[in-house]
Amino acid sequence: MKTRQMIAVSILVITILGCEDSESQISRISSGTSFGECVGYCQRELIVTEDRVSYKATGYDMTSYPVLETDTSYQKQEWEALIELVDFDALLGYEDVVGCPDCTDGGAEWIEVVMDGQNKKITFEYGDSLVSLQDLIEEIRRLRSRFESELFHE
After folding, report:
1. Residue 4 domain-assigned?
2. Around Cβ 56, how many Cβ atoms within 10 Å?
3. How many Å apart are CA 108 and CA 102, to the nearest integer?
4. CB under 8 Å to 40, separation ≥6 — which residues?
5. Is 5 within the bounds of a domain?
6. In a domain, 55, yes or no
7. Which of 8, 10, 27, 117 is deepest in the core (most CB within 10 A)?
């Protein structure tokens, strides 16, 4: 009987440890915008990791519009709230390109999530909605807006 109990406990421990190892880990969420027919800072990118947020704005004319970059620490509770908004299965369900990004110079927007070394990036029309990802997109837009306000004094 003791042998059976030992086996049962061993299986339970292996199962618990196996579940911890198989839990998915998001390592990065990034997003950006771009405009093809543009003067100024035409490309903007935000990268969020567990402890950092980086923002970069670039233009086609590097002399008139040098790269603007900033980064800051990111609080653990903010990261945890952000990754709660990620539905990786919904993200995988989208084509890589949705609609006609930057057609008629309407701009393009993109979002990318890296989870367990696998990444998925979706590019869509600037300002558009992707229903199953909208909460995540809105939060990322708020973050981008915060940095844009600081850098461009908007």
Report:
1. no
2. 18
3. 5
4. 59, 65
5. no
6. yes
7. 27
Indicate the number of domains in the chain.
1
- CA dist., res. 27 & res. 65, Å (int): 31
Residue range 64-117, pLDDT digits in tens? 999 999 999 999 999 999 999 999 999 999 999 999 999 988 999 999 999 998
Q: pLDDT at position 17, please?
A: 42
**Whether the model pTM is above 0.90:** no
Residues contacting residue 46 through CB under 8 Å, at least 6 positions apart:
30, 31, 32, 53, 54, 55, 140, 143, 144, 147
- Residue 105 is given by DSSP the state G
Could you tell me which of 51, 57, 29 has the C-alpha nearest to residue 120? 29
- Dist. CA 125–CA 7, nearest whole Å: 56
Domain of 104: which CATH number?
A: 3.30.1560.10
- pLDDT of 122 > 60? The answer is yes
Report phi then psi at 53, rounded to 5.
-130, 125
The range of the structural domain enclosing residue 29 comes to 24-152
The one-letter amino acid code at 114 reads: V
> For residue 130, what are its two tokens?
């992707």
Tell me: pLDDT of 2 over 80.
Answer: no
Identify the three-state secondary structure at position 70.
Answer: strand
Distances (CA, A) of 53 to 56, 83, 116, 143: 10, 14, 20, 9
- On whether residue 10 sits in a domain, the answer given is no
